[in-house]
Structure prediction request, 285 residues.
Amino acid sequence: MLYLNIIIAGLLTGAVYGLMALGLSVIFGVIRIVNFAHGEMMVVGMYAAYLIAVNTGLDPVAALPLVTAGLFLLGYALQRGLINRYIARPEHEQFLLLLAIATIITASLLMGFGPDARSVPLDYAYDSFQLGPLLLDKVRVLAAVGAVLGVVALWGFFRLTRTGKAIRACADNQVGAQVVGLDIKRLYAVTFGLGAACVGAAGCLMLLLIDVQPYIATDYTLLAFIIVILGGLGSMPGALLGGALVGVTEALSGFAVDPSLKSAFSFALLILVLLVRPQGLLGRA
Prediction:
């Protein structure tokens, strides 16, 4: 039962990881550009939730819609004003651009907040739900529920709205989308905004689980890469599956071996999957 509790805790955390990686997968799946500033955007979302909590008393869960909307606007503006100019350029130029954006974000957060870790005091931080022999942390349950709702909302947007269907058309056939008159640049900006909104929402929920400081951004960018490669680049279900696998792997290795080695086990899982299925678990060859 102890290991079952640990696995469930890992799955709950993995739901948040999946939402975080989903933003990266959406951006790559449609625009074919890798967002190397992904973790930095999540940290921006965490700091935004922290500021709202400190100044208004709103819980990070309650601040989720505000932070999500703010990150959507940030992503939309970045893509529309800057990244669109690099879509047709070589990949190394795209890499340098996103790396520069990541560096600017981290430096700005350091100037604004300093290197010290910050957290939001929660009245229910040590509460839990008991289901028979299972003991579930309330913060992890709330974070996982918020992540699942975010995934469902994104799925509904892509499946049920005209804009979502147009974005899917761009992902399937860019030339065909241009022929029928779709505004590719605007749709790309909306897509990047949605990816940023996903990672902003994940940052809000992650603030329930960990403290925030600027230097954690790189770790979560790498984690997002691990997850989307595990699941398959551009695959939404793959991002969720990868998040669940990484969450469980970290939970089990942190308990059974050493918490400081949990990243090593995530990378080992990545290598194992790449050896068996190079395109990822749910990716296309």
Q: What stands out?
A: Residues 18-216 form one domain. The longest strand covers residues 128-131. The mean pLDDT is 90.
